[in-house]
């Protein structure tokens, strides 16, 4: 296939052009979580707010999003039905999980990646000293149909004016909004339902679901480091695969693939060339390369260069490893 420069630019979301939503989720007014910025880059994501801007609506079998937070700001405990993978673009982040966030935790640095198991409550906070950014890959075209919140999150949100309806939409009582007729509040999970969310310790999660950036850089010799996939370092099949490409492991020649490919630079600037055109991708940019497009990648400057490459697979989005399998 061929693609014009204009069409390719429409498939690139630049970091500096990201449009945040500050009311994306139920904890948007809760102290400690009320300074979050959420970004929906590819696909509709899991936002509960009609104010969320979607940059690229067409999905390649998965969604791409991001969260930006100042120091000490946290994202409240929730669970996903399908895969949720994060890598740290900027800052230092603590991820925690369990019914009350006390079952386990891990701290991630820039470039580190975490394939969070389905079926557990999870949250995260910026424990760095500056504004931080994490990029997210969510399984499935519909990102699993939303999130499941820990009961205390819904109760705290209600005390601060936000009510989540059974329809998955938020209503701000501080703005005079109310649940529409026939729409009930989202019910709290019962004690019986909560037993389905295990309290998985860190030693059953971290070794199998966290990959450190510098370990991946060492693995990416003459070939990309296989990060997530059936034959990868993190052995999982969430509906997509993840690789880390470096200066020494990029394909020597132009290539094409029958699958969707999303490029997300971590360090350095990368030149993407196709059909006699080229553009430069920087850290924080997201580029959706369509199937069948012959293209080439190369660092455009000297120094460290790395990017994550995400490719859709034939595996169902819900095929990710569950916590109770540990």
UniProtKB/TrEMBL annotation:
Keywords: Metal-binding
Domain named Cupin type-2: residues: 71-134
The keyword Metal-binding appears for this protein: yes
Pfam families: Cupin_2
InterPro entries given in the database record: Cupin_2, GPI/OXD, RmlC-like_jellyroll, RmlC_Cupin_sf
SUPFAM superfamilies cross-referenced by the UniProt entry: RmlC-like cupins (SSF51182)
Protein name, per record: Cupin domain-containing protein
């Amino acid at each position: 296939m061929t693609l014009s420069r204009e069409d390719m630019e429409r498939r690139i979301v630049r970091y500096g052009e990201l449009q945040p939503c500050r009311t994306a989720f139920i904890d948007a007014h809760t102290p400690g979580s009320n300074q979050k910025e959420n970004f929906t880059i590819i696909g509709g994501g899991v936002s509960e707010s009609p104010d969320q801007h979607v940059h690229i609506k067409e999905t390649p079998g998965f969604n791409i999003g991001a969260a930006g937070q100042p120091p000490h700001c946290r994202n409240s405990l929730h669970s996903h039905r399908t895969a949720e993978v994060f890598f740290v673009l900027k800052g230092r982040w603590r991820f925690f999980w369990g019914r009350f966030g006390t079952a386990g935790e891990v701290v991630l640095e820039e470039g580190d990646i975490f394939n969070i198991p389905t079926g557990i409550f999870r949250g995260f906070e910026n424990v760095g000293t500056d504004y931080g950014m994490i990029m997210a890959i969510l399984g499935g075209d519909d990102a699993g149909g939303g999130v499941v919140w820990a009961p205390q999150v819904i109760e705290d949100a209600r005390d601060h004016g936000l009510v989540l309806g059974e329809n998955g939409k938020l209503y701000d009582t501080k703005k005079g909004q109310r649940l529409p007729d026939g729409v009930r509040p989202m019910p709290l999970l019962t004690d019986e339902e909560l037993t389905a969310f295990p309290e998985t310790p860190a030693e059953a999660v971290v070794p199998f679901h966290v990959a450190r950036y510098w370990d991946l850089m060492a693995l990416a010799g003459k070939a990309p480091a296989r990060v997530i996939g059936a034959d990868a370092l993190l052995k999982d099949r969430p509906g997509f695969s993840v690789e880390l490409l470096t200066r020494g492991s990029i394909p020597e020649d132009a290539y094409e693939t029958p699958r969707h490919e999303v490029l997300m630079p971590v360090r350095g600037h990368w030149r993407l060339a196709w059909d006699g055109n080229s553009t430069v991708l920087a850290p924080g940019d997201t580029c959706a390369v369509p199937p069948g497009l012959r293209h080439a990648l190369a660092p455009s400057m000297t120094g460290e260069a790395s990017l994550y490459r995400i490719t859709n697979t034939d595996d169902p989005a819900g095929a990710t490893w569950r916590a109770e399998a540990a």
